[in-house]
């Protein structure tokens, strides 16, 4: 759909992302749902810019151990710099595309629907898995969810770089075009405020420098942000 050269060209968006937050490898952003949502239908969206490559970078994790119903995580693999989907028990393989730059904003989009798990990079499908059926660890009560860090599986593998506009939709498998669009060959964000977030859905905008985990979806599903400082807030965003 979009070539790598086109991803790097600036686009014009009527929707502006004001802030991002910088991860340096030690920070965490976590929440444990108190009520279970839809574990078989959901979607996840985030914008990111790496500051280091060839390191294992967690993008989203839920749960601590066991198969995909107890733990599911998405990383950028340290050896290949490709997306990796795993439960810790089973590795479901790598994406078709690597991310080896440190100067470009990229869009990660993940959805699970009808027993098909699909990962997208900048609007392009890069990994499809059909062996994850039924309930996953995502949106499960008691499971620690980690945004660009480990969830319930300990420390390490925290992302290094900038992160902006992270969203989870509980119960709806949206498409990448619901939260982003092509503008003259550039993949740019769209306003998600009219979308349905569901029970455990959230919208982390990184606007509150004293609480980067504040949820703007209206659900009050705030994440606990640890080891960040107010200086980690940035105006370098996908729309700046």
How many domains? The number is 1
Give the overall silhouette.
globular
> Kindly, what is the distance between the CA atoms of the first and last residues, rounded to a whole number of angstroms?
23 Å
* Residue-averaged pLDDT: 92
- Computed structural class: mainly beta
CATH architecture: Sandwich
- Kindly provide the radius of gyration, computed on alpha-carbon positions and rounded to a whole number of angstroms: 16 Å
Low-confidence stretches: 1-10
Helix content: under 10%
Q: How many helical stretches?
A: 1
Secondary-structure element pattern, one letter each: HEEEEEEEEEEEEEEEEE
Q: Main sheet? A: 8 strands, antiparallel
- Structure summary, number of beta strands: 17
Q: Which CATH top level class fits?
A: Mainly Beta
CATH topology (fold) name:
Jelly Rolls
Strand portion = 35-45%
Characterize this entry briefly.
By secondary structure, this protein is mainly beta. The chain has one helix at 4-7; strands at 20-24, 28-31, 42-50, 57-63, 71-76, 82-86, 91-98, 106-113, 116-121, 124-129, 145-147, 160-170, 180-183, 186-189, 202-204, 224-226, 233-234.
Could you describe the 3D structure shown?
By secondary structure, the protein is mostly beta strands. It has a single domain, classed as Jelly Rolls (Sandwich). It is 2% helix and 39% strand. The strands form 3 sheets. Strands 1, 3, 8, 9, 10, 12, 15 and 17 form an 8-stranded antiparallel sheet that branches. Strands 7-6-5-4-11-2-16 form a 7-stranded antiparallel sheet, with no helix packed on it. The model is unreliable at 1-10 (pLDDT under 50).
